[in-house]
Amino acid sequence: MNLPTLDVPGLLRSAHLNPKKKLGQNFLMDNAALQRVVTAAEIQPEDEVLEIGAGLGSLTRHLSQAAQRVVAVELDQQLVPILQQVLAGMTNVQIVAGDILEQNPAELMQSDQYLVVANIPYYITSAIIRHLLAASQKPRRLVLTIQREVAERICAAPGDMSLLALSVQVYGAPRVAARIPAGAFYPAPDVDSSVLRVDLYAEPRIPEAQLGEFFTLARMGFSQKRKTLRNTLAAGLGCKGDAAAEMLHAAVIDPQRRAETLNLDEWRQVTDTIGPRLKQLRKPVEPHPS
């Protein structure tokens, strides 16, 4: 069934509300763009979908048509009554008023093969991705409408890697599934967006038991972008440069390389070789993406 375009400005006016900049409220309202998001998600009739930042329900309505069950989380309490009104009659939608960062996705979803489909605020993109990938029960797939530059950074190849890209790619394969112009939103943001799709692996590419060591070493490596791994690891490990170089040679990594040039297999070599020494040199952080 084709859905009429939701009158986002009219709904806000009727409730005497304005979009909140501090919450990054740019409501995706163009039906063609919304359909591109749903298409990118490849939702099956038996799927459960977690939507973050449901807003006024523009995307939620389309998700309701495609999925068996939708859990729509919305932080802004003032939007919840409008959301309930817009979604009235859609019995497969559960609205959760609250902050997704304070929610355990595993407790919201009944299936362990759920999808996350969301238009998320730019300012909190990294925190939301980190929260989802650190969840006790991770989704099968993420489909997120985010700032175009951030999506491209997450999909980067060795040579242009970042800690964010590495943190996502260790869990799944990211790709840009669609582009969405700023004019598809109300109000229009300053930049265009992309629909980022991440299909998660059954297991991370770094063994679970080593993720703490992996993220500790990766943070060290990316701590000073223009410096070589020899210098960044020496600073992070609290040892001399020669000692760090020796460890990197043992991992078959040139100490003069920079963190952004390593691929995941090379980071695994670094983790396998240097990770066991962290207990002697530095206590690892808890395993989660940065």
Quick overview:
The protein is α/β, with parallel strands linked by helices and 290 residues long.
Average per-residue pLDDT, rounded, comes to: 94
Sheet with the most strands? 7 strands, mixed
Q: Approximately what portion of the residues adopt beta-strand conformation?
A: 15-25%
The largest sheet has its strands arranged as 4-3-2-5-6-9-7
Uncertain runs:
none
Assembly context of the chains: single chain
Compute the CA-based radius of gyration: 21 Å
Number of strands: 9
Query: Could you estimate the helical fraction of the residues in percent?
Result: 25-40%
CATH superfamily of the largest domain: Vaccinia Virus protein VP39
The number of distinct helices, counting runs of at least 4 residues, comes to 13
Termini Cα gap: 41 Å
Integer tally of domains: 2
Query: Mind telling me which CATH architecture of the largest domain this is?
Result: 3-Layer(aba) Sandwich
CATH class of the largest domain: Alpha Beta
Elements, N to C (H/E): HEHEHEHEHEHEHHEEEHHHHH
